[in-house]
Design goal:
It is a single chain. This protein has helices at about 1-10, 15-25, 35-50, 60-70, 100-110, 120-124. By secondary structure, it is mainly α. The protein has 2 domains: about 1-55, no CATH class; about 55-124, Glycosyltransferase (Alpha/alpha barrel), CATH 1.50.10. It is elongated, with a radius of gyration of 15 Å. It comes from Punica granatum. It holds the Pfam family Terpene_synth. Its cofactor is Mg(2+); Mn(2+). Keywords: Lyase, Magnesium, Manganese.
Length: about 120
């Protein structure tokens, strides 16, 4: 199992798949076994984000990326990544109510907001 997880983290895959793999490993309570591999994968994802290559267009992938980077607190991801989901009234777009997976990911990400970051609290 350990070899499978290591290979999974080192494998070339879609950015969302990699984030979901990291999330699954963490939810299983195995994070400490794969710290080096997770750190390497997150460094790669973070560098890709810094160069503007990845596109996180949906709420789920944006919120998952935000939460995982914030859980590994040395990655600073601004709350502004959620601005594209806010309507002109300052609330999350009504069309997002059909995106259950995205809303659950947003809810989980909201626990990683810092003091003074109001996008979660003003919009929910």
């Amino acid at each position: 199992m350990a070899d499978y997880a290591r290979n999974l983290l080192n494998k070339q895959m879609d950015l969302l798949e990699k984030l979901e793999s990291i999330d699954a490993i963490q939810q299983l309570g195995l994070r400490y076994h794969f710290e080096r591999e997770i750190k390497h994968a997150l460094n790669s994802l973070y560098e890709s984000a810094a160069t503007g290559r990845p596109q996180y267009d949906d709420l789920h992938s944006t919120a998952l990326r935000f939460r995982i980077f914030r859980q590994h607190y040395y990655y600073e991801v601004p709350q502004d990544v959620f601005r594209k989901f806010i309507d002109e009234t300052g609330n999350f777009r009504a069309t997002l109510t059909d995106d259950v997976k995205g809303l659950l990911s947003l809810y989980e990400a909201s626990f990683h907001g810092f003091k003074g970051e109001d996008i979660f609290f003003d919009s929910l």
